[in-house]
Amino acid sequence: MSFLPISILAYALNAGSIVIDKILIRNILPNPLIYTFYINILSLLVIILIPFGLNLNNQALFMGATSGILFVFAVYTLFKALKLGEASVVGPVVGALNPLFTLLFVTFFLNQILTSSQIMGFSVLLTGALLLTVNIWLKKLRLNKQLFWMVISGFFFSLAYISLKETFLSSNLITGIVVSRVAAGLFVLPLIGFPSFRKQIFVKRNDQFSNKKTLFLLILGQGMAATSGLLISIAISLASPALVNSLFGVQYLVILGVAIILARKHPQLLDESLTKGVLMQKLIGVGVLSLGVYLLSK
Q1: For residue 280, what are the domain limits?
Q2: Residue 111, Cβ neighbours under 10 Å: how many?
Q3: What does the DSSP 8-state code read for residue 204?
Q4: How many domains are contained in the chain?
Q5: Residue 7: which residues within 8 A CB-CB, separation 6 or more?
Q6: How does pLDDT run across 64-89, given as a tens digit for each residue?
Q7: Which of 23, 34, 145, 206 is such that its CA lies 20 to 30 A from the CA of 5?
Q8: pLDDT at residue 109 is higher than 80
Q9: What confidence tens digit (pLDDT) does each residue in 150-169 have?
Q10: d(CA 87, CA 37)
């Protein structure tokens, strides 16, 4: 079985999830904390996997719970970045920061030595990120906020995935998924205890989207994200992580394609800047990012 179609499908699905996140954050659930709550409460549905091989131990419980809590902060900061910026910038930059922070973590805390390829990848990755975010630098007021949330999100995702991998190593795939997702759901559950927050959760929305459509988009987006994660794991089992990760640029192309389609009839949904010059800049930026991710993973 070839890893290529699996990887392409995985990143395409992840792109769909990011687009849905942006639409919901911009038009339906503008409070990132509310959206974070919905996403992580839905993750409690993973309890249906318990009969398929739960293998609990102290390390799996600790690392899995740590991963779940870090994931809550990761998605919250991602949604903050999406609220302030374009999905075609936020998605690729946050996605590229994950392996970068992972590499820095194992280098400085686990004393692993950087290879020449990884040093080159580090430089290329920074160049690609600068190309994609050059327009942000020109917006003085939004500069610090948007870049801050993207960097913090990449940092939290990296730590969440490192903790999740440790859970897998100490137990198995099912245990890691169940413990981390249940921990995330239970971590956000106490938010219901705040009256003002509870009112925002259960209020009926008088906008173009009904509550049923909102729920459908939530489930669809998270279904895409979950399927993407599973497919990437399968792809990595078939080929080098470097090859799999280098294809993450596919998700950017999908995001950009959807943005172009929506810009004609529903430009308000994503609020993307799509002039010819900006399109060329973004294409070059994501190409450089993909090369950087590939070099970092070698």
Answers
A1: 3-297
A2: 7
A3: P
A4: 1
A5: 231, 232, 235, 243, 244, 247, 250
A6: 999 999 999 999 999 998 888 777 77
A7: 23
A8: no
A9: 899 989 988 888 888 888 88
A10: 20
